[in-house]
Each structure stands twice: as structure tokens, then as C-alpha cells.
Amino acid sequence: MRNTTVFQVKGRAHHLGRRTWLMGIVNVTPDSFYDGGRYLDADRAVEHGLRLAAEGADILDIGGESTRPGSDPIPAEEERRRVVPVVTGLRRETNRLISVDTSKLEVAAAALDAGADIINDISAFSLDPRLILLAAEKDAGFIMMHMKGIPKTMQLHPRYKNVVEEIRSFLADKIEIARAYGLSENNLIIDPGIGFGKRLEDNLALLNGLEALSGLGRPILLGVSRKSFIGKILDAPAEERLEGTIAAAVIGVVRGGHILRVHDVKAVERAIRVAEAILNAPADTTPNQEKAGYVH
After folding, report:
1. What is the set of active-site residues?
2. What's the fold here for domain 5-292?
């Protein structure tokens, strides 16, 4: 079961682990694998984000560039044009934490200036180490994810000797580097990168062996929502993967996950609430007198 850790954002401490947090996905893209094009308009994206917050999202994750397998990068200016109005609109309407899903310094800086709290970097600052310096300067949260390669090529024959140990070692090294760059460990969240340069068996091993990452002492974020590994198991398109998403999310929580990044906040929140009620219940509710043999 997960440990309880402190996550710091702009001087405010949050204690993660007492309950599971939900991160609602707001894709401001024309080509994301599940909801591409639905919220490309900024007003619609803000409306969608507020709906996710009402359904229970603790963090709203705004992304302006698709990172699905095989995708190409877009110019920073275009990504910034998509993202900043949504961050601005949401910051005006909600006090929920806002993260920006980007690996570009210019986009992250503009989003933080517009009111975002967290940088969610799929490259764990491998593509631009300056992101860590920015996070340290702004006291922003920083989510660092493991990815093998880049989105364009990451699913071309990825291989691991021991996927859990390799990713644990990668994230441990990144934590140390981030600290050396001046960012407090309390500002960090780790993400094993489900689906990012992983085969089906790698994703399953990571989820089942997630407890190995708990020793790193940082909150663990999981992005399992409607991903292709679920589709391979169920032989189902993205539109028919909600049940599989919920199953993966519940297992992720049991194995130590703190935050779930999902499209379907309401459904997952309800499932997790039931799962946590079971996990937190005492295994034996027999009164003490009965246990001692006094009641027959």
C-alpha cells in the first residue's frame, strides 16, 4: 500500500496518500488518441476542465501537444497559443491545481505566468534541463515521467532486461539531479510512464510491481486512462476501454499509486472511493468479547 508523502507547490504543502487524487485530462489538441479535437476551442476546454473539477479532479492537466505513439512535435508558439488561454480561464474560475503537460521551456514559463502550478514533463527534463531551473525559480510542482525515446519512435521495439528496476533507477537518478539543480524533493512527483516506450508485458509488470517505486519517497502518478495496453487485452478501441481503465486504476492504487491521470473523472473517482473504503476497513469486525470467548 502507498506511503504518505508531502507534495509542495508554491509554498503550500499537500499530504498525498491519505486518499487518491484525480488528475483530469484537458487536451487542447486536434489529434490526441481519445479526445483529440473535442476541446480545441479554449472556451470549451475551460468548460470541460470545470466539469472535471466538479466531478472530483484535484488537478487539471492542460496539454497542447499530442504525445501519442507516432506523433510529431509542434512549434512552441502553437503549443503556447493553445494552452495559455485555457490556463488563464481555469485560473479565473477555480482554485484547483493546474498542471501544464509540456516539455518546452517557453510553454511552461508562459503557463506558470498565467497561473499554472505544476509542470508535467513526459521527458523528465531530458529534452530541456532548464525546466528544472524554472520550476525551482517558481517553486512549482514538477512531474517527471519515464519515457524510452520520443513519442515519434518510442513504440518501435522497446526492450528492457528488468523494466521495474530500470525505471526505478532512472527516476532515482532524476530525483538526485533535480535536487542538485535546486528544486526541493518535496516539489517532485514521479510517473513510470505507462504506455511510453513500453510493450504490453512491460506495462503489466510496472503496474503489478509498482510498490518498488514507493521506496523513492515521492508521490506516484499513473496515466492508464484508455491506453492501448487495455485495448490489447480487451480487443477494444479507445471508446470502449472505460472498464479496463477502472480496473487498472484500482490495481494501481492497491500497488501504491497516489494520483490517477484520467479522462473519466466521475467514473474513476466512484470506483476508487469504493476500493479505498474496502482497503481501509478492518479485516475483522468481531467484538473483543466474542474473540475472547465471552459471548456465545
Report:
1. 227, 261
2. TIM Barrel (3.20.20)
